[in-house]
C-alpha cells in the first residue's frame, strides 16, 4: 500500500469513528453548555426573565392562554376567586377529576404520539441510517460542530452548529445565525436547516426533547426549556450579537420559534414556514367529533401551542411562508389530497390576520381586513399578483406613509421610554387613521404582501434555498 492510499484509508477510518461516536456515545459526552452558564445575562437585554435555580424545576415562563380563564399570573381571575367559596371549589374539582384524568391519559399516550410522532423510539430506529448519513454530511461537508446542552429541567439537547463567519459570502449571510426549529417529525440531521444552510447562512440546529439523542419528552414546557438553552448557547457561547440571530420555525417548530422571540425580543428576526396559529382547530380536524370536549381540554392543558399569541408579543421583523399545497395545516376540507391552490383554510391565514390586526389596528378595520382575506384566497402567484394589481397598490406611497408616521412618532415620543423597544417604535402603530377606503385597502394589501410569501410546495417538501429569505424591514 502506498503512502497516499494509507493516508486516505486512515482519514476514512477516522470519519467512520467520528460519526459512530456522534451517534452512539452522545450520552457519555461531556456537557458543552448549561442553561445556568450565563454570567452576563444583563448584557444581552432585559426582554427575557432570568431563571433562578429555585425556579429551574418548574421551567421557563410560558404565556398562559386566555381560553383557560387565567390572568397573567397563571391564576383564576380575581373576581372569580372572590366569588367562589372553598366548598364550591372542592366540589368543582371533584366533578372535573374524571375529565382531568382522561385528559392526562390521552395527552401522555395517543396525544403525544399524534402531536410529536418523532419522539417515538420506533421512528428513531427506522430513521437511524438516514440520521447517521445526515450527521456525517453536516460534519464532513459543512464542518458541523455537535454540542450537548443541558436545559433547566435536566434534559440533554442535541445540537449541530455550522459556522460561516470566516467566509460570510459577498452578501455577508454567514454573519447571520439561523436557529432552526424542526417540525413534529423533523430532526436537524434531515430537517429544515438545509435551506438556510445551502443559502449561505450560519446555522444552528437542535432536536426536540425525546427526538434523536435529545432526552426527555416533547411537551410545550420541555420544548420551551430546550429553546431557552439553545438561544443562550447562541448568544453567550457562540457569541452572535442578538440582532444577527434569526429564528426559523417550520410547522410545529413555530411554537418554540415564537416563544424565543417573545422571550428574547432583541433577537433579529423571525421566519415561520408552514406554521399554524393554534393547535385546537387542527386537533379537532383529525379526532372524532364526539371527542371535541376532551380534545379541547387536552390541548389547552397539555399542548397549548398558542403560536399566534406569542407571535404578537414579538416587536421585530416577521415573515410567514405559506405553502399553497399544504394539506396538514389546512382545515377547510377533509379531502386527500387537497385540491391544488386551495389555501382558504390554511391556518397561516389566521396567523397573518392576527399579526396585522395587532400591529396595524387602524388599517385592519372592516374594509382592510376584508381585502386581505380576499388576497389570501389567491392560490397561485399569478392570482396573487392579479389581486394586488386590481387595487392599484402604490408601494412607494405606502412606504412613504409608514416612514413619515414613524418619523413623526420619533419626534413626539422622544422621552417616552415605553414607546421604544429593541427594534425601534413599538407596536401597535395607529398609522392609517383618517385614510379613505381605497387608500386603506391599498395599505392593508401592501402590509400583507410584505409579511407573507406564498411558496408552491407541500407541507413536507424541503424548502428550496432561493425561497428562504429574511423578513422585510421598514
Uncertain runs: 6-23, 40-54, 66-83
The secondary-structure element order is HEHHHHEEEHEHEHEHHHEHHHHEEHE
Largest sheet: 9 strands, mixed
How many distinct beta strands? 11
Distance between the termini: 63 Å
Mean pLDDT: 85
Number of helices: 16
Large-scale geometry: globular
Task: Report the helical percentage.
Answer: 40-55%
Going across the biggest sheet, name each strand in turn.
Answer: 1-2-3-5-4-6-7-8-11
Give the strand content: 5-15%
Radius of gyration: 24 Å
Structural class: alpha/beta
Ordered list of secondary-structure elements with their pairings:
Blueprint: H1 3-24, E1 33-34, H2 41-44, H3 78-83, H4 86-115, H5 121-142, E2 145-150, E3 156-162, E4 177-181, H6 194-198, E5 202-206, H7 220-237, E6 245-250, H8 253-263, E7 269-273, H9 279-286, H10 292-302, H11 307-311, E8 318-323, H12 347-359, H13 366-376, H14 381-390, H15 395-412, E9 420-421, E10 424-425, H16 437-451, E11 452-455
Parallel strand pairs: 1-2, 4-5, 4-6, 6-7, 7-8, 8-11
Antiparallel strand pairs: 2-3, 3-5, 9-10
What does this entry show, briefly?
The protein is an alpha/beta fold. About 45% of the residues lie in helices and about 10% in strands.
List keywords for this structure.
two-stranded antiparallel ribbon; globular; 11% strand; alpha/beta; single chain; 16 helices; 474 residues; nine-stranded mixed sheet
Amino acid at each position: 500500500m502506498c503512502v497516499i492510499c494509507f493516508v486516505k484509508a486512515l482519514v476514512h477510518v477516522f470519519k467512520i469513528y467520528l460519526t459512530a461516536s456522534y451517534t452512539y456515545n452522545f450520552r457519555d459526552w461531556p456537557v458543552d453548555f448549561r442553561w445556568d452558564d450565563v454570567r452576563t445575562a444583563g448584557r444581552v437585554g432585559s426582554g427575557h426573565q432570568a431563571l433562578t435555580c429555585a425556579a429551574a424545576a418548574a421551567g421557563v415562563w410560558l404565556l398562559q392562554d386566555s381560553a383557560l380563564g387565567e390572568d397573567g399570573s397563571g391564576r383564576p381571575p380575581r373576581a372569580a376567586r372572590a366569588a367562589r367559596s372553598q366548598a364550591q371549589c372542592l366540589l368543582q374539582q371533584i366533578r372535573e377529576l374524571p375529565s382531568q384524568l382522561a385528559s392526562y391519559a390521552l395527552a401522555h399516550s395517543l396525544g403525544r404520539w399524534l402531536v410529536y410522532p418523532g419522539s417515538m423510539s420506533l421512528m428513531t430506529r427506522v430513521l437511524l441510517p438516514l440520521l447517521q448519513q445526515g450527521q456525517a454530511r453536516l460534519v464532513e461537508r459543512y464542518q458541523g460542530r455537535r454540542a450537548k446542552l443541558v436545559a433547566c429541567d435536566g434534559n440533554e439537547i442535541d445540537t449541530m452548529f455550522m459556522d460561516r463567519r470566516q467566509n460570510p459570502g459577498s452578501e455577508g449571510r454567514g454573519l447571520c445565525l439561523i436557529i432552526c426549529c424542526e417540525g413534529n417529525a423533523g430532526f436537524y440531521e434531515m430537517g429544515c436547516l438545509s435551506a438556510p444552510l445551502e443559502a449561505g447562512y450560519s446555522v444552528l440546529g437542535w432536536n426536540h426533547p425525546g427526538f434523536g439523542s435529545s432526552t426527555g419528552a416533547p411537551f410545550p414546557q420541555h420544548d420551551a426549556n430546550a429553546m431557552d438553552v439553545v438561544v443562550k448557547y447562541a448568544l453567550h457561547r457562540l457569541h452572535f450579537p442578538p440582532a444577527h440571530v434569526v429564528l426559523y420555525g417550520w410547522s410545529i417548530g413555530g411554537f418554540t420559534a415564537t416563544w424565543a422571540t417573545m422571550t428574547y425580543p432583541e433577537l433579529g428576526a423571525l421566519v415561520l414556514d408552514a406554521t399554524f396559529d393554534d393547535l385546537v382547530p387542527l386537533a379537532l380536524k383529525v379526532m372524532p367529533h364526539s371527542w371535541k370536549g376532551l380534545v379541547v381540554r387536552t390541548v389547552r392543558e397539555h399542548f397549548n401551542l398558542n403560536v399566534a399569541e406569542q407571535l404578537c408579543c414579538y416587536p421585530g421583523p416577521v415573515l410567514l411562508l405559506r405553502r399553497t399545497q399544504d394539506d396538514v395545516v389546512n382545515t377547510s376540507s377533509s379531502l386527500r389530497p387537497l385540491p391544488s391552490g386551495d389555501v382558504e383554510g390554511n391556518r397561516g391565514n389566521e396567523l397573518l390576520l392576527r399579526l396585522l390586526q395587532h400591529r396595524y389596528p387602524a388599517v385592519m378595520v372592516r374594509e382592510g381586513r376584508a381585502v386581505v382575506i380576499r388576497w389570501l384566497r389567491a392560490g397561485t402567484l399569478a392570482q396573487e399578483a392579479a389581486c394586488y394589481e386590481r387595487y392599484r397598490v402604490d408601494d412607494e406611497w405606502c412606504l412613504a406613509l409608514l416612514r413619515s408616521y414613524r418619523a413623526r412618532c420619533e419626534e413626539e415620543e422622544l422621552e417616552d421610554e415605553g414607546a421604544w423597544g429593541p427594534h425601534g417604535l413599538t407596536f401597535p402603530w395607529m398609522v392609517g387613521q383618517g385614510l379613505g377606503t381605497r387608500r386603506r385597502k391599498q395599505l392593508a394589501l401592501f402590509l400583507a404582501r410584505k409579511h407573507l410569501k406564498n411558496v408552491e410546495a407541500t407541507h413536507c417538501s424541503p424548502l428550496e434555498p432561493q425561497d428562504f429569505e429574511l423578513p422585510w424591514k421598514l
